[in-house]
């Protein structure tokens, strides 16, 4: 997978209902049950607590914000050393199994937890420990929710989640305008080519094996960010592949109003132990498209120097 170095993600299949997982995550006091050492000590307002933290010798303010989407639940955790001055943002998306595979009989929810760490503020400890701690905490969260659902062992999901993340040094408004028009997919998706009339939100393509692919997309504002959802359907085989893309302003992701551009975070679902017959066959297929998107949009924005610097945000980017 391609990982923008200031963005960390972990995922888990949880054998509980999306509603149960959502209500559990919305209550900050539940952090006491499953995190390494985020312990809520003092409630400040309805959605904010002051408490201890795993990666700091100081106390942190914790704030929860609910995300609004018609097909799945989500929240954002916000953290900071001062009340209402939050510089760490943690979106959590809860995808029902039906969202991942339409028509499935699988129950449960696929939890995806994203962590953004401001490169101006992060400590060496945060960089060295975030993967270990958040991965273990995600497993602990799964265990707590599944125990409450009556399970005595970890449930296995049919899918696993992989991600591709890049920084794009272009205004997010430009990114939204370009990416939300499906006609532009013919430019940046090298494994697909347009086959007939393409509208802004749907069209027919051919893949690298000359197979028919019907592509639809939907753009949905999600608080300060946007979610662009791609659905690829092979009509001759009844095969679906879905890929939601979170587009988040860099200024919001890192709590820095001076940070330009946006982060593109692509979320993909893969059947465990199975090679897909159609569509994207590996995470690198998504990653190569992301590089194309970054190159095209940064060129349109006149920012011709940042592409050579890599896929990650650096504070000196202008």
Describe this structure in words.
The chain has 318 residues and is an alpha+beta fold. It folds into two domains: 1-157, Alpha-D-Glucose-1,6-Bisphosphate, Chain A, domain 4 (2-Layer Sandwich); 162-311, Alpha-D-Glucose-1,6-Bisphosphate, Chain A, domain 4, CATH 3.30.530. It is 24% helix and 36% strand. It has helices spanning 18-26, 31-34, 97-100, 124-148, 172-179, 185-188, 250-253, 283-300; strands spanning 7-14, 40-45, 48-51, 60-67, 73-80, 88-96, 109-116, 159-168, 193-198, 202-206, 212-222, 225-234, 239-249, 262-271. The strands form two sheets. It has a seven-stranded antiparallel beta sheet. The protein has a seven-stranded antiparallel beta sheet with strand order 8-14-13-12-11-10-9. Strand 10 (202-206) and strand 11 form a beta hairpin. It starts with 6 loop residues before the first strand and ends in an 18-residue tail after the last helix.
The stretches of 5 or more residues where confidence is low (pLDDT under 50) are: none
Query: In the CATH classification, which architecture of the largest domain applies?
Result: 2-Layer Sandwich
Total beta strands: 14
The secondary-structure class comes to: alpha+beta
Query: Mean pLDDT, rounded to whole units?
Result: 95
The total tally of domains equals 2
In the sheet with the most strands, the strands line up as 1-7-6-5-4-3-2
CATH superfamily of the largest domain: START domain
Termini Cα gap? 26 Å
Could you give a short account of the major beta sheet? Answer: 7 strands, antiparallel
């Amino acid at each position: 997978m391609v990982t923008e170095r200031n963005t960390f993600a972990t995922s888990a299949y949880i054998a509980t209902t999306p509603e149960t997982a959502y209500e559990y995550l919305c209550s900050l006091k539940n952090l006491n049950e499953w995190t390494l050492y985020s312990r809520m000590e003092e409630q400040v307002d309805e959605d904010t607590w002051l408490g201890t933290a795993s990666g700091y010798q100081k106390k942190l303010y914790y704030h929860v914000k609910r995300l609004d989407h018609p097909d799945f639940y989500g929240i954002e955790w916000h953290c900071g050393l001062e009340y209402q001055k939050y510089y760490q943002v943690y979106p959590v998306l809860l995808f029902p199994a039906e969202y991942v595979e339409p028509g499935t009989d699988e129950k449960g929810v696929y939890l995806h937890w994203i962590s953004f760490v401001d490169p101006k503020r992060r400590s060496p400890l945060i960089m060295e420990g975030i993967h270990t701690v958040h991965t273990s905490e995600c497993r602990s969260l799964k265990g707590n929710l599944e125990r409450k659902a009556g399970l005595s062992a970890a449930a296995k999901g049919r899918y696993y989640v992989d991600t591709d993340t890049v920084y794009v040094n272009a205004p997010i408004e430009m990114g939204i305008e370009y990416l939300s028009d499906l006609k532009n997919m013919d430019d940046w998706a090298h494994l697909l080519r347009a086959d007939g009339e393409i509208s802004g939100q749907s069209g027919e393509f051919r893949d690298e094996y000359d197979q028919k692919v019907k592509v639809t997309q939907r753009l949905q504002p999600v608080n300060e960010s946007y979610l662009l959802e791609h659905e690829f359907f092979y009509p001759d085989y009844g095969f679906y592949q879905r890929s939601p893309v979170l587009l988040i302003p860099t200024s919001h992701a890192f709590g820095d109003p001076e940070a330009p551009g946006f982060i593109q975070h692509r979320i993909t679902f893969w059947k465990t132990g199975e090679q897909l017959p159609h569509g994207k066959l590996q995470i690198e297929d998504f990653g190569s498209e992301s590089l194309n998107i970054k190159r095209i949009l940064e060129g349109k924005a006149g920012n011709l120097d940042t592409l050579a610097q890599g896929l990650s945000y650096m504070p000196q980017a202008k």
